[in-house]
Amino acid sequence: MSTKIGIVSLGCDKNRVDTEVMLANLVKGGYEIVSDPQLADVIIVNTCAFLESARKEAIQSALEMASYKKLGKCQKVIITGCLGQKFGAEVFDELHEVDAVVGTENYDDICDIVSSALQGERKLYQSCAEKITFGSRILTTAPHIAYLKIADGCDNFCTYCLIPYIRGRFRSVELERLIEQAAELASKGVKELILVAQDVTRYGKDLYGDFKIAELVHKLSLIEGIEWIRLLYCYPELMDDKLIDEIVANDKVVKYVDIPLQHVNDEILRKMNRRSNGKSIRELFDKLSDKGIQARSTFICGFPYETKQTVKEIEDFLVQYKLRNVGFFAYSREDGTAAAKFDCQVPSRTKENYVKRLYKVQYKIADKLNNNDIGKVYKCIIDELPEFSDGKYFYVGRTYFMTPEIDGQVFIVSQKELAVGGFYDVKITGAVEYDLLGEVVE
C-alpha cells in the first residue's frame, strides 16, 4: 500500500500555490494524497509566519496534527513554509513532536524529505530564499479558479513587514513559463486566473529591466479558455498608465484591482517606508474612478504615531472614494522589523477600537453600494453546485468585484440548471450585508 499524505495549508494565496506544487511532486513520487489528516501516514503543515498570530496558528496546527501520532495511524509530521524558513532552527529545537522542518524552497525535494522522515531521520532543511517554487500543480481551488504566482519575495521593505526577511528579494518567474502554465491550467478547465505576488506591479523588473505586468496580462488574455483575469496586490506607486490602459481595454481583465494602501497620512506612510503619499494616492484613485476601475484595499490601524486624527484621514478617504471592499488590520509589532523599535507604540485596545471604528464606516458604504446594485445586471461566475427546492436551483457565484474567499458572494436563483464555472447574466434583487441576491436573466 502507498504511503498516505495529508496536507494542511495555512496563510496566503502564494502559500496555497506552493502547497499545490508540493502535492504534484508527492503524487509524481508515488504518494497518495488524503483530505482527512486522520487517515494520513504523514501530515505536512505548510505554514505562514507573517504575523505573530499566524505563527501561533501554525504551531498550534502542527501540535494538533502531531496528536494523531498517539492514535497509532500518523507516523510523521513535517512543517514547511515561512515558519520553517525564518524560524526553522527555533521550531526544530523546541517542537520535538515535529519530524522535519522545511523552508520555502525545498518543495522539489519533498518526496526525499518524506522518505527520510519515515526512515527515522529528524532534520532541519533551510535554504537561502533565492529560488522560486514553480512547477506542475494539483489545484486546491474549485476547478474553474486558479492562482498564478508570478513572483516571490519583496523589495519594498516596509518597516512593519517581515516578508523580505522570510521570502527574500523580489524575483519574477519568466514570462514564457507563466504563459505555459496558464495555458495548461486553461486546458484543464480554469476560467478565472488570479495573478498573485507580494507586488504584482513590480513583475519583470528584475529579469527584463522594465515592468512587464501589462505585457504579461495581455499575453495571458490571449489564452483560449481564460475568461477572467484578476490582479491582486498592486502597489499604488507602480499602477502606471500602461497597466491601467490594459485593464480598461482588455475585456478579459476584471475592472477591479487590489491595492494595499495601508494608510493615507503622509507622515505615517513615510514611517512605513511606503513610496506613495496622500496626494499621489488620491490622484491614482481619481484616475481609476474616471476609467471605471473599482478597487479593494487594506489599511493598518494603530501603527506607531497613529492618532484619532490620522484615523480620521482614512475615514475621510473611505467616504470620498467609496471602496466596495476594504480590510482593516490592527498593527502587529514584529521583532526584526524597523517599526518594532519606533517610539509611540499604540496600545492594543486603542488599535482594536480604530479597527472597529473604520469597519463601522466601511459597512455603511458597502451597504449603500450593494443596495444601489438592486435592479442592475451583472455577469457572474457560478462557484458551487446547486441546492434544489420548490422547483428552483439555488447557486453561489460572484461578479467581477468579488475576489474568491475574500469578498462577498452572489446568491443566485435559477429556473434551470447552470454549469459550475459558467458565466451568466444575473439581475440583482437584494442585498444582505456584503452579499448580493440575484436571479438569472433568461
Could you characterize the architecture of this molecule?
The protein is of the alpha/beta class and 442 residues long. It has 13 helices and 20 strands. Helix 4 links the parallel strand 5 (100-102) and strand 6. The N and C termini lie far apart (51 Å). The relative contact order is 0.08.
Structural descriptors:
alpha/beta; six-stranded parallel β-sheet
Outline of this structure?
By secondary structure, the chain is of the alpha/beta class. The chain has helices at 13-28, 52-66, 82-94, 110-118, 163-167, 175-187, 205-208, 213-221, 241-249, 266-271, 278-291, 308-321, 348-372; strands at residues 4-9, 32-33, 42-47, 76-81, 100-102, 123-125, 145-149, 151-152, 171-172, 192-196, 228-231, 253-258, 294-301, 325-330, 377-382, 387-389, 392-398, 410-414, 423-432, 435-440. The mean pLDDT is 96.
